[in-house]
Design a protein that fits this description.
This protein is of the alpha/beta class. The chain folds into three domains: about 150 residues, 3-Layer(aba) Sandwich (Rossmann fold), CATH 3.40.50; about 80 residues, Serine Threonine Protein Phosphatase 5, Tetratricopeptide repeat (Alpha Horseshoe); about 150 residues, Orthogonal Bundle (DNA Cyclobutane Dipyrimidine Photolyase, subunit A, domain 3), CATH 1.10.579. About 45% of the residues lie in helices and about 5% in strands. Strands 1-6-5-2-3-4 form a six-stranded mixed beta sheet, sandwiched between helices. Strand 5, helix 6 and strand 6 form a beta-alpha-beta unit. Helix 8 packs parallel to helix 11 and helix 12 crosses helix 18. The longest helix is centred in the middle third of the chain and has 24 residues. Bound molecules: flavin-adenine dinucleotide (FAD). The site of flavin-adenine dinucleotide (FAD) has 28 residues, from helix 10, helix 12, helix 16 and helix 18.
Length: about 475
């Protein structure tokens, strides 16, 4: 097929923004009646650069804007728990979009074909967001080849556009100065534009009723993992949690984030994963808390080091390392040392089922596993320990990696995310780390012992909290 003609003004000027990728060039379709934002990764209205671009173009072209969320029944490794959280967020998207004069349409199988939808509404142009994981990126590529209208995507869920980096950075201390050099440019208030033209929904237009069960009638769908009541999905719940965090917890974050027995971290990872909140909203709120004297600049810097530094290094990792979810992502030194120790005796071995049910000899590890199973989230400190023990207790590093990804993706609300893949890669495959002392099974992969991990915080209290159900992620 010949290349479509290059983008005309006013589209061209928007593509100078490194957040924007032109997936398919060309002029907006003649006679098109609206602009569509296909919302996939960034499930929110607030501080959403993909939505802002759609509205800006709609206003310039005198066209209304429709946001469509096309639900699929077979999202890789997603189950009832994840879809329940996603569903809870839909009403917030609808009401927040209405305030911006934008229509929200949710479609579910068998009526969720995006190309058909674009024809139904006579779209002139399509905007999407970015998701650098393998499958969602493949969908965007396939779609771009099939579409007949221009298609742009916007990197809406990072502070610094990932297109500014052209390779994988193997350590945070190398990536961070380059990344943070761009933060002042991109960590800015978002315009949150309002559409000047509204779309008149045709009578009997097909749309999913947000009160319904989004998974109704799905066969071959994993319902075995139950929803949790420790987090409520959606932007409004995310903003309540953010307020609680910046006003009450941020000041003590540098110390309390190392204490899984306390409520000391933001607990925003499920909201970030589903795009219910932008990292820009969170980072600006943390900086505001410093201006208001609620937290020190040092505490804020440490928090932004996680939120922007580690998180965007994870995005960089999945974007450039194709095997991000298997042991094949290990750097040479780590692959070599794990190979050399592959035949080491493994005095303790557990099956996947024993681990999944939290039936090991290690009470601290079991508590971490059960926190994830029952609450849909695990504390960062425990996640590192949890993954390293899976390496120690599995017949091979390959199987350990596979089981860690499987359990993480199945139970964590924030699973199936670049952070999860890079966290497991760090713990088991030495990614973004360096060689340590040589020891059995691990070789020079950094080791964490139960005795020393458990002494750094009140592990008894943590174990009791998990067992007694004394844990919540959101604020009631
Ligand atoms: C083995 C392992 C598995 C992990 N699995 C996931 C996962 O599936 N999904 C996920 O979002 N995170 C994962 N992480 C990273 C981290 O543990 C969680 O992001 C964090 O615990 C979430 O809690 P919080 O929101 O309270 O974090 P906070 O301490 O409040 O940090 C704020 C945000 O910064 C980001 N962040 C914090 N720590 C890290 C980190 N080490 N790497 C990357 N980003 C970070 C997260 O987006 C987090 O929400 C994993 C880490 C490890 C070691």
């Amino acid at each position: 097929m010949p290349n479509p003609s290059p983008l005309p003004e006013p589209l061209l000027s928007h593509t100078q923004n490194p957040r924007v990728t032109v997936r398919r060039a060309g002029s907006p379709l003649k006679g098109g009646k609206c602009i569509v934002y296909w919302m996939q990764r960034a499930q929110r209205s607030l501080d959403n650069p993909a939505l802002d671009l759609t509205i800006a173009l709609g206003n310039e072209l005198n066209l209304p804007v429709i946001v469509v969320l096309s639900i699929i029944a077979n999202y890789p490794n997603a189950n009832l728990r994840h879809y329940a959280f996603l569903s809870q967020g839909l009403a917030d998207i609808e009401s927040d979009l209405a305030e911006r004069n934008v229509t929200f349409i949710v479609r579910r199988p068998p009526d969720n074909q995006l190309e058909k939808f674009l024809q139904e509404v006579d779209a002139a142009l399509l905007i999407g967001d970015e998701n650098h994981c393998r499958e969602p990126e493949r969908w965007r590529k396939v779609l771009a080849r099939r579409l007949k209208l221009p298609f742009l995507t916007v990197d809406a869920d990072v502070v610094v556009p990932s297109s500014l980096f052209h390779k994988h950075f193997y350590a945070l201390h190398i990536f961070k100065p380059r990344l943070f050099a761009h933060v002042p440019t991109y960590l800015v208030k978002q315009p949150n534009l309002k559409a000047t033209h509204s779309w008149r929904t045709p009578k009997n237009f097909l749309r999913y009723d947000l009160q319904g069960d989004i998974t109704e009638g799905w066969t071959n769908f994993d319902r075995s993992i139950q929803p949790v009541d420790t987090f409520t999905g959606g932007t409004h719940a995310a903003l309540s949690r953010l307020k609680h965090f910046v006003s009450r917890l941020l000041h003590a974050y540098p110390e309390n984030r190392n204490h899984p027995e306390h409520d000391g971290t933001s607990c925003l990872s499920p909201y970030l994963h589903f795009g219910n909140i932008s990292p820009i909203t969170i980072a600006l709120a943390a900086q505001d808390a410093v201006k208001q004297g609620k937290a020190s600049a040092a505490a804020c810097d440490i928090f932004l080091g996680e939120l922007i530094g580690w998180r965007e290094l994870s995005v960089n990792f999945v974007k450039f390392v194709p095997d991000y979810d298997s042991l094949d992502c290990a750097p040479d030194w780590a692959a070599k040392t794990l190979r050399e120790h592959a035949r080491d005796a493994r005095p303790t071995l557990y099956t996947l089922k024993e681990m999944e049910e939290g039936r090991t000899h290690d009470d601290l590890w079991n508590a971490a596993q059960l926190q994830m199973v029952h609450y849909g989230w695990m504390h960062n400190r425990m996640r590192m320990y949890w993954a390293k023990k899976i390496l120690e207790w599995s017949p091979s590093p390959h199987l350990a990696y596979q089981h860690a990804v499987l359990l993480n993706d199945r139970y964590e609300l924030d699973g199936r995310d670049p952070n999860g893949y890079s966290g497991i890669a760090w713990s088991i495959a030495g990614v973004h780390d360096r060689p340590w002392f040589d020891r059995p099974i691990f070789g020079t992969i950094r080791y964490m012992s139960g005795a020393s991990t458990g002494k750094k915080f009140n592990s008894r209290h943590y174990i009791e909290n998990v067992a007694a159900g004394r844990w919540r992620g959101d604020v009631e």
